[in-house]
Specification:
3-stranded parallel β-sheet
Length: about 290
């Protein structure tokens, strides 16, 4: 619960920073307050008092001298969580947009991590007859919503109120463009772009990392089977483990991420992914796998 609370508050803090920094009279002041508040939230995550820390930081931001005589065009930034938020990964995207005369509307990562994902898993569990798991996820989601309502009382007035879309709204918005079993990253990005457009954004940027396997090995192998409706969740995980063994890896690799694999191991994961849906035809180009005699 404390983690979910912290994620929500950091979302709102980042939004306040993006709404204030382009108009700040003193360069660097917004970043200074932002850094100090993040540090306080880090300490409060362990000792308690996150809502108070966030409220004080937001109040400090609101007290900075700004010039809003000229409103800037708003640009929404979607994409995968790490790339769109991390300055290094995005090449300082937020600041570059501000230097070009824009105001950034950041996509909240709390929706990606909790609101959408938990709701989707709950529905999948119920559809597969896993009633206890479905009930548990439903309880987790209700607790999250309760925490957000409490936190919103502390941040209301410091940031613009732009209600985040519900799970049903997200699925309705993306229906013309993608099926319900598409990757969560795809669904959320599409929904975010629609949300930005409905909210009056002048433009949208999709900050996603190319040539990269998104998520863990498990996610990479299970996704194609999910899209094609192959088996239950348990069946898909069992097949993913078996596929890894077929290509010379171990089931333990399911938990790993791309940066934890060698180049040859990544190639093996790609082969396993290609085989996951039992295709009748598989087209391969010439390549090598380490060790060469494999």
């Amino acid at each position: 619960l404390r983690l979910g609370q912290g994620m929500f508050l950091i979302d709102q803090l980042l939004r306040a920073v993006c709404e204030t920094r382009p108009y700040a009279a003193e360069p660097g002041e917004v970043d200074r307050v932002y850094g100090e508040t993040l540090k306080k939230l880090e300490i409060a995550a362990e000792k308690g008092g996150m809502r108070q820390a966030a409220r004080e930081g937001l109040a400090h931001l609101a007290g900075l001298k700004v010039d809003r005589s000229v409103r800037r065009p708003i640009v929404g930034v979607a994409g995968d969580i790490y790339t769109r938020i991390n300055d290094f990964a995005s090449g300082g995207l937020f600041r570059r947009l501000e230097e070009m005369g824009c105001e950034v509307w950041p996509a909240p990562f709390n929706v990606d991590l909790y609101a959408f994902t938990t709701n989707r898993r709950r529905r999948q569990a119920l559809a597969e007859g896993q009633l206890i798991r479905g009930a548990w996820l439903g309880l987790v989601d209700s607790l999250r919503e309760g925490q957000e309502r409490l936190c919103w009382r502390d941040v209301a007035g410091f940031v613009s109120k732009r209600p985040e879309p519900t799970y049903d709204e997200i699925m309705a918005w993306v229906a013309p463009y993608a099926g319900p079993n598409a990757s969560p990253l795809v669904l959320l990005n599409l929904a975010r772009m629609v949300h930005f457009a409905k909210g009056g954004a002048s433009g949208v940027i999709n900050a996603s990392c190319f040539n990269c396997m998104v998520g863990s090995v498990s996610a990479a192998l299970v996704e194609p089977m999910t899209v094609h409706g192959i088996g239950t969740r348990r069946d898909r995980l069992d097949r993913a483990a078996a596929l890894l063994e077929e290509v010379g890896l171990e089931a333990d690799h399911l938990r790993r991420y791309p940066h934890e694999l060698s180049g040859g191991q990544r190639q093996r994961v790609c082969i396993a992914r290609a085989l996951s849906t039992r295709p009748s035809l598989l087209v391969l180009s010439t390549f090598s796998i380490d060790p060469p005699d494999s």
